[in-house]
Write a structure and sequence with these properties.
The protein is mainly α. Helix content is about 70%, strand content about 0%. Helix 3 packs antiparallel against helix 5 and helix 8 crosses helix 15.
Length: about 300
């Protein structure tokens, strides 16, 4: 006996057939980070432009390099230091550039979307305020330090190749540049400094600036700096002390938890003074991260209830 099912095949227009696949938890965050780079091209254009400008100056310097290397009065140790100086200066210059970029980005991250009213569009998308704020916070805390490291390493290797080509063209040896310079140690110091100091140690600054960016209706830079100056002034007048100013100065200078008190700069001599274990268990780091979490939580709440300016 043949039986025919009365079940109607699922229609192409059936909502169950066209229901979108569930988004992974990380995909909205990933695309939110990419959105920040689409809307803020200065995040990578500024360090690349500075690197290109520095490379032009280095090319001019290499024209005089063979004559300076032939100087018999130049001690081998001084010769090594003479060769290494441009590489250290390139790292410091790029770190300073991305620090400035990070500050201005953080001050405009939430304020800009309220000013141009694009917040109305982004709020219509199925992306939470927490995801948006965390994606914006990840730029100065994670992305920019790693991007700076990659650009710096690429720049230094281009400098090494150009300098070697000039020395070889003049009939001189390039052994000092390739064998005497501690490339691995220099790269390790740079990566540690960027991640530990520019990322984690400066996190409260970025969290505070994001909070101000989500609250201020105009002039976020003034609202971010004036309260801090007011606290310094009130403390000085009321108690004749400067504890808050000293704390802010220690935070901005990088403190002594990650590097020794006598070790300064980006020299390879800094390597024996590095103490990652001491840095990661230091109270200053975790207090700063706790303050950063409070600032970011407040930023999420502000974005949830604040509309366009």
């Amino acid at each position: 006996m043949n039986t025919q099912s009365n079940v109607v095949p699922e229609s192409p227009l059936d909502p169950r057939a066209i229901a979108p696949a569930a988004l992974s938890e990380t995909r909205p965050f990933y695309w939110s980070v990419r959105r920040e780079f689409w809307e803020n091209r200065s995040l990578y254009i500024a360090p690349l432009a500075v690197a290109a400008l520095f490379l032009v100056g280095f090319l001019i310097r290499t024209m005089h390099l063979p004559a300076e290397m032939r100087d018999p009065a130049l001690h081998p140790m001084l010769q090594l230091e003479f060769i290494r100086q441009p590489y250290d200066f390139a790292a410091l210059l790029l770190m300073g550039t991305t620090l400035i970029v990070a500050v201005f980005y953080s001050l405009d991250a939430l304020h800009g979307e309220r000013r141009d009213r694009s917040i109305l569009f982004w709020k219509s998308l199925p992306v939470s305020d927490l995801t948006i704020v965390l994606s914006k916070a990840s730029i100065p805390l994670v992305i920019l330090p790693l991007l700076t490291f990659a650009i710096t390493i690429a720049l230094q290797w281009i400098m090494l190749l150009l300098g070697s080509a000039v020395l070889l063209g003049s009939g001189q040896s390039v052994a000092t540049s390739w064998t005497q310079l501690p490339w691995f140690q220099m790269s390790l110091i740079l990566l540690y400094h960027l991640v530990a100091i520019h990322g984690l140690w400066y996190a409260p600054f970025y969290g505070w600036m994001l909070l101000v960016s989500g609250w201020a209706r105009r002039a976020p830079f003034l609202w971010a700096t004036l309260p801090l100056l007011a606290i310094v002034g009130v403390e000085k007048i009321a108690f004749n002390t400067a504890h808050f100013a000293a704390m802010m100065g220690s935070r901005f200078s990088g403190g002594n938890e990650g590097v020794g008190e006598k070790a300064t700069g980006m020299s390879v001599a800094l390597l024996p003074h590095l103490s990652p274990a001491q840095f990661f268990i230091s109270p200053g780091l975790w207090i700063g991260l706790a303050m950063t979490a409070i600032f970011l939580a407040a930023s999420v709440r502000l974005r949830r209830y604040h509309g366009p300016i």
